[in-house]
Amino acid sequence: MQWKDEFKIGIPIIDTQHKQLFLCENELSAALTKGLRPAAIDNFLTQLGFYVTRHFSMEEHYMEQSSYPGLSEQLEAHRSFALRFTEIQEEFIQTGLNPSVVHAIQNELSAWLKNHVLGLDLTFGAYYQEKKREKNTQP
What we know:
The chain is mainly alpha-helical. The chain has a single domain (11-17, 26-134), classed as Four Helix Bundle (Hemerythrin (Met), subunit A) (Up-down Bundle). The chain is 83% helix and 0% strand. The chain is built from 4 helices and no strands. Helix 1 runs antiparallel to helix 4. The longest helix has 39 residues, at 99-137. The protein is elongated. The model has no long low-confidence stretch (mean pLDDT 91).
């Protein structure tokens, strides 16, 4: 799945982070066609863990700041995503590189991009931009 400008939510740092996640998914797909090594999956999961921590924290800050009514749904989605990737990382540690781990990573990341980034996050972006316009038009 390729990043498109229409996926932007209008918060530059968040948009940059989302774009990076799309790039990660593309890099993983490319690596799969060339053959993966355990070190590459370990690195990918580690980097994804760092990304999740930074990105979710920042995104939630903007949601709190704007009194976003969908914050609790977002918090739950973020928690579930982080938990799922922790489970996948644990499976990788216990069983090593195997098709189950690779497919789980691909499926979860692809679903996240389609359902969350292009769903819930775009909804938040529209809300955030409307709040910003309202604030800028008030005397």
